[in-house]
Amino acid sequence: MAILESLLNPAYLDLFYFTALGVLFSCLISFLPALHIYNVIGIFLLVILKFEATMAPMQLIALCIGMIVGYSILNTVPATYFGPGDESMSYYILPSAAWVAKGRGFESILLTGVGAVGGIIMLAVLAPAFLWFMPGLKTITSPHMFWILGTVIAYMILSEWPKGISQSESCWENFLEGWKFLGVGIATFLLSGLLGFIVMSKTLVPIEFAFQSITPVFVGLFAIPWLITNIINIGQIPKQHDPESIELDWGLVCRGTFGGFLGGFFAAYVPIVTAGVGGLMAGHATAQRDGRLFVMSYGTCKTVYYVGSFLLFFIPGLSLTRGGLAWIVTPVVSVLTLKEYALFVALMLFAAGMAYMMLAPFTRMCIWIVEKIAYFWVSVIALIIVIPAVFVFTSWGGLAIMTVATGIGLLPVMFQARRMNLMGVLLLPVCINMAGYGNDVMRFLGLI
Amino acid sequence: MKGFTHFISGIAVASFFPQAVHMASQEQSFILCLGGIFGIMPDTLDFKFAKYFHKSDFEIRPDPNNLDARVIAETVANAIRKAEKEGRGTVQLHTMQLGSNLWRSYTLAFDSATSEVVVDIGPEVDTGQVPFEGTELKDPEKAHARVKVESQFFQQFDKKSQIAIMTGPCFEFVKRDEGKIEIVFLPWHRTWSHSFTLGMLIALLVGIFTFFTVPEGPNPELYTIPRWLLYPLIILFGSMVHIIEDSTGFMGNNLFYPFTKDRTNGLGLMSAAEAIPNFLFVWTSIICILYNLDRFRWAPGDTPPGIENPASYFFWFYVIPLAVMAYFFFKGKKAKEAKEKGRPADFDGATSVERETDASVI
Lengths: 448, 362
Hints:
The structure holds two protein chains of two kinds.
Chain A: H1 2-7, H2 13-31, H3 37-49, H4 51-54, H5 57-74, H6 76-82, H7 87-101, H8 105-141, H9 145-158, H10 171-201, H11 215-233, H12 250-269, H13 275-285, H14 291-313, H15 324-329, H16 338-372, H17 375-415, H18 424-434, H19 438-444
Chain B: H1 3-14, H2 18-27, H3 31-48, E1 58-60, H4 69-86, E2 88-93, E3 96-99, E4 102-111, E5 116-125, H5 140-143, E6 144-148, E7 153-154, E8 161-163, E9 170-175, E10 181-185, H6 196-213, H7 227-247, H8 275-295, H9 310-340
Parallel strand pairs in B: 1-2, 7-10
Antiparallel strand pairs in B: 2-9, 3-4, 4-5, 4-8, 5-6, 9-10
Helix pairs in contact in B: 1-3, 1-7, 1-8, 3-7, 6-7, 8-9
């Protein structure tokens, strides 16, 4: 009752204002081509808003809730039409590109929107249960995180199946053709892991921009290869159909939301694991096959990953800092009580509703842009924005890292291997470091 | 079962060894991952190695510029005739790629009631198997063929096989004692790689290696199994759980290769691609892993448990979800049965194709 009274207190109206503002900002942020959300929010808060001087801690949190919820729902739109910014998006982007190619991009975006709202509702419904079981889950899994990451790596590598279509009479020729894809996948994982070790131990990014040190890596691995592919391959996208309704039933909604929630929650809870990896594992765990199911479940997964990792931070007494946004707000949050947790859930629902209402007009706007401007030029403009942006925030060192990362990022594109292997850039060094072998590896590589 | 199901089941099996859990939490060992790796290993061996080295008696590479369903059906029928004469015959069907994202599809079915091989040339499809309207063959003579064979044949289930994208399927025809021809789908799958004998052989080799290389760990008095034995046991049980899980489906395994020659039929309790059975195994594994990690935590006297009341844990996190899954599983099964009741197998109609060739499913 006390919580309800708190929530209905007019003094908290400013929080709803800041949440709404956050959702509006998220439109802007998600429009910035091919940049990772946490870096963008970091720049936004630290450099542009200089929030510390202007906002109370809870107002900042409300703004962040608005931004992360809005971003997690709305970023599907520019990512679908202009390119993915991170691995979480690139997992979805290939199937969504197929929908765009059939003129059904709008429909796929609405499906992810339904999935995302479903994910937020599940988070809200389960929020009280989190208070009950999350402390126990943390106690059990804390000493085991490194090998859990190890199993994620092992599964990522082992679950990639050969794609070779050689029909030669020679067994060996067929075998090598099939293994070409697997070999590229493994090489991509190892090379990106090596890059991760180098970037984490001896980054070329100037110290004043240390908080942006991973930006050029992500831009190079995920964004630029996608833009280059678009520039080379795609002429004009076909006319996009604006549907009056989408084909859905409750069974599909429940299955998609449930599967996506599992993947998103796993990604939110286990450090370094992203929505893409979580979605892959949950998709396999729940044997998803339907294209609509995949797209919708992805919407849930991505939203639960981004918002859930932030929500975990607010569970009183748990001290679970997952995801970049939780780290950003850590300095301004001193005590977390049930009241802040309940407020979080309320603001999250409000932001989700608002973002969902904006989804259709936002999509129409993006479609209008890509229909007016040739897709080739959209990609060229995105590339022209991204490269100077990386230079501004990370200088020449960042550009050098970005160039190397682009080379690695192009490998799966050229050989049709999984882009997810590029997550080796974080998974491998973090897993090895958590297991306590990081220094040995870095010594072996001559990095220390 | 899906690869992930086998993978996590292998980890669950490994977590039943207290020493392995202690090694993970106290010595930063990745030993529990070994269960997962060997859990998925049988399918890895099949789909990444065995399938490339299987030689077929007949290979069908349809010419996209001169399509004729009868030619395909005749070749399949010839493989059946070979089996009639020599005991066994195999045929590999290849796909037709027309462009980077364009394929010509066709289907193959075996009508056991009339002893006919049924082939239909389908439309062009993209890699997502979405058909392009208007690309069907106009000439019905070329698009559809039924070729009768002399022998009677039987198979596990009357389903069409669609040959459309990536790699096509392979069939083996085996003459059984009563003279009937058995149709074996993907003859290179679930044979030696899915046998207890291979699991035992690998475990034996690893055991010999670890016996000489793995020293006894700290506090050996706490454990009944020496540390060197842990590795082969996790490998053995990891691969065994894969075989047991696969046996719940239709296809079965060749359990004691090379002592047994053929795959035995599975129990047919569930299909490998079904969502709920897969998730049941996954969820059971997760519940077991968490329970084992908690009960085998290091220094239980000094560390508070994550699960304070195991009965409540199993009730809320296992019994309740199990009941929900059972409800939806049987409801779905009932609805499917009602839908299919009295309906004969339709080999000529444009029905959906249900036989699975996707490596990630089987």
